[in-house]
Amino acid sequence: xxxxxxxxxxxxxxxxxxxxxxxxxxxxxxxxxxxxxxxxxxxxxxxxxxxxxxxxxxxxxxxxxxxxxxxxxxxxxxxxxxxxxxxxxxxxxxxxxxxxxxxxxxxxxxxxxxxxxxxxxxxxxxxxxxxxxxxxxxxxxxxxxxxxxxxxxxxxxxxxxxxxxxxxxxxxxxxxxxxxxxxxxxxxxxxxxxxxxxxxxxxxxxxxxxxxxxxxxxxxxxxxxxxxxxxxxxxxxxxxxxxxxxxxxxxxxxxxxxxxxxxxxxxxxxxx
Length: 272
Hints:
Helices cover 52% and strands 14% of the residues. By secondary structure, the chain is an alpha+beta fold. A hairpin with a 2-residue loop joins strand 4 and strand 5.
């Protein structure tokens, strides 16, 4: 499912959300303006390698595939040198790196759609701490379920999953205009946010459950980072709400024209 827009208008310009998108974009460009070897080295140095986080003082090895003229494609053990920063710090730095253009584009689009309203309720400083905190929680979840993996984990998906979990509790009755693939056709549907985000989470959980048999040296999507970030985001919002620490907001649907419609007037004052 691909979200196109939601119907909640933020009360303030989401400066922090735009800044996070901008910083991540700059880092992504730095990755790919270099040659391929330098880009890979950047991911290796600042991406999170679970085995290195769990055993920072031990030398580790990863499995690499090389072409041998006699034996063809063979798998060999390659030592993983230490990075330029402490391994524990990579649980944070990895959320600003991405493995490819579609990975980067998808993450930034989801952050653009859902992040502005979460920033509205948390405030700018609170939103920065929330984004970084759920990103770290997502990284640690991935470490927990794949502690022996030597594959670098990169991507903002975990932190953005935290934003989506927060959005689910803050605006469950919002609607999301969504591109939904059905067989060979693409349907454009308007669905409640709780359905969109609920289906998304169930898909992550299903794929994460299947991935338990492939946690060794196989690359792919860090499903459990998504799950951990989402749950952490919901948990933080639940605690802040019970303590009355969230900013109050009127959920006003986005206006499609300058003329105020009767629907806008009717729902414009409803508080969630």
